[in-house]
Amino acid sequence: MPGKMLDLQTSQQLGWNISIFLRAFLFCLLISNGNLRSFPYFSTYLMLNLTKAVVVFLAYQAWGMDSWPTYFVAWGAEAVVACARGLAVAELCRRLLGHYRGIWSLAWRVLLSCVVLIVVYATMTALSAPHQSLAHGVIAANRTVELAVAAVIVILFVFLRHYEVPSDPAIRSLALGFCLYSCVSVVNFTILEKYIKAYESVWNFLGVFTYLMCLTMWTWALRKSIPIPRFGSPSLFAKAVYQRISPEVNAQLRELNEQLSRFWKLEEPQP
User: Of 38, 90, 114, 134, which residue is 20 to 30 A from 229 by alpha carbon distance?
Assistant: First the structure.
C-alpha cells in the first residue's frame, strides 16, 4: 500500500509539472497566433491559472504542504481562478450565441442568475453547518461552482444541438474542456467531502490528470488563429440577412430569436 501511494504521488507530481509546461506553452501559443484579443477572458484565466501554479509551488517550498498559510494561499488563489473561469465560460457562450441578440439577452441573464445562486448557496451552506470544518465549507463551495459551470455548458450544447446552430469546432472544444473538468470535479469533490483523508491523494491525482486532458484539448483547438468576433451593432440582423444565410439558420431558431427580441424590446436596424 505505501508503494502504491508513492507511485500515485510520483505520477501526480509528474502530471503537475507537465501541466505547468502545457499552460505556459498554451499561453505562448495564444500570443503567437494572435488569439489574445480573440479570447481575452480565456487568456486572463489561463494567465491567472499559471500564476496560481507558481504561487502555490512557492508556498509549498516556504511553508510546507500542510501549513495554514499554504492552505489559505492555495484556496484563495483557487477562488480567484474560479472567478476567471466563470468569465471565460461566459465568453465562450457569447461566442456561440452572440449573433442571436434575443437569445443572448436571455442567456446572459441566466448566467448572472447562476452566479448569484452560487454565492447564496455557498453562504447558506456555511451558515447552516457551523459544526463542519473549514475544509468542508471550501469543498462544498468549489463543488457548487463546478456544478454551475457544467450545467451551463451542458444546457448550451443541448440548445446548439436542438436548433442546429452552426458553431466553430475550436470554440466547442474549449467549452467541452471546461465541461469535462467541471463534471469530474463535481464527482471528485463529492467523494472528497465524505472521505477527506483517505481520498485526498486520489482527488489530487484525478484533478491533475483531468486538467491535463483539458489543456491538450485547448492546445489543439487554439493551434491556429481564430478571428476576433464581430457581433455588429446591438440590434438584430435584418430579415434579408437571415434569408441570405439560410439554411444555416434554423427556422425555429429564428422564430425563437425574434420572439425573445420582442420580449427584450430589441429593435431591428433601419435600412
Answer: 114
Residue 259's SS3 state is: helix
Residue 229 above 50 pLDDT? yes
pLDDT at 162 over 60: yes
Pair 209, 18: CB distance under 8 Å: no
Distance from C-alpha of 114 to C-alpha of 121, rounded to nearest angstrom: 10
- Please answer whether residues 105 and 136 qualify as being in contact, where contact means their C-beta atoms are separated by less than 8 angstroms: no
Whether 174 has a pLDDT exceeding 60, the answer reads yes
CB contact at 8 A, 245 and 187? no
As a whole number of angstroms, the distance between CA 4 and CA 10 comes to: 10
Per-residue cell: 16? 503537475
Grid cell, residue 79, equals 477562488
Residue 3 C-alpha cell reads as: 508503494
**Does residue 231 or residue 96 have the better pLDDT?**
96
Cell numbers for 113, please give them: 442568475
The full length of the chain comes to: 271
Distance CA 8, CA 167 (A): 39
DSSP 23-59: HHHHHHHHHHTT-TTTSHHHHHHHHHHHHHHHHHHHH
Are 163 and 253 in contact, with CB atoms under 8 Å apart?
yes
pTM: predicted TM-score of the whole model, two decimal places: 0.80
> Helix or strand or coil: residue 95?
helix
Q: What is the pLDDT of residue 118?
A: 65
- Report d(CA 105, CA 234) in Å as an integer: 11
